[in-house]
Amino acid sequence: MKWFSDPCRCHRRNLSLLAAGALSDGEKGAVEKHLTACADCRKYFVEVKAVTVPLANLAGIVPQLQPSQSAQARWSRAIRTDGRREPVRRLTPAMAFHEWWQDVIWARRRVWAGLAAVWVIILMGNLSLPNHAQTLAGKSSSQEMVTAFKDRQKILAELMASHSSPSEAEPQQIFLPKPRTEGMMILTA
Q1: Which of 23, 80, 113, 177 could form a disulfide with 17 if both were Cys (CB 3.0 to 4.6 A apart)?
Q2: pLDDT tens digit string along 116-159?
Q3: Would 35 be classed as within a structural domain?
Q4: What share of the chain is helix, strand, coil (3-state, %, to 5)?
Q5: What pLDDT, on the 0 to 100 scale, is given for residue 117?
Q6: Is position 49 within any domain?
Q7: Residue 120 lies in a domain
Q8: Is residue 40, in this structure, part of any structural domain at all?
Q9: Spatial distance between the Cα atoms of 130 and 125, rounded to a whole number of angstroms
Q10: How many domains does the chain have?
Q11: Predicted TM-score (pTM) of this structure
């Protein structure tokens, strides 16, 4: 489908070769014949020629560039060492701790610093409470409270035990309503 929408597509490669001066004489005639008939290809040829001519002239002006001996030696050494395997290193506990430190702590150091700051603030707040010293010194009063609680618990257990056994409980009396006239005085004359 693209072939029909762009019929000059097959000539673009040959136009580039013609502009660079690398096209054979047999193909040169067919491309020049197409250039006389197609305005778009002529425009394309002029644009390519504007780029290739200065580049072709540059090769004669600039001497051949060669890397220095030290650069060649460095490149060849890099190529040779790239193919070698690196020796396997033994992991010591210090190296394992260092890698863990780098991965877990150091990578998230801002988070850890924020958590440490929060814990310091909480600790300072707990130590600065006015009742904190009294709470630490008042352990004897807490012992008294525990003893009083145990005494009350014993009393409650005794009360619950006396009411929970049905054999000792009194039988319930059935409530019968009183007649209305019983509570009234009847006046007779």
Answers
A1: 23
A2: 999 999 998 888 876 655 555 555 567 788 888 899 988 888 88
A3: yes
A4: 70, 0, 30
A5: 94
A6: yes
A7: no
A8: yes
A9: 10
A10: 1
A11: 0.32
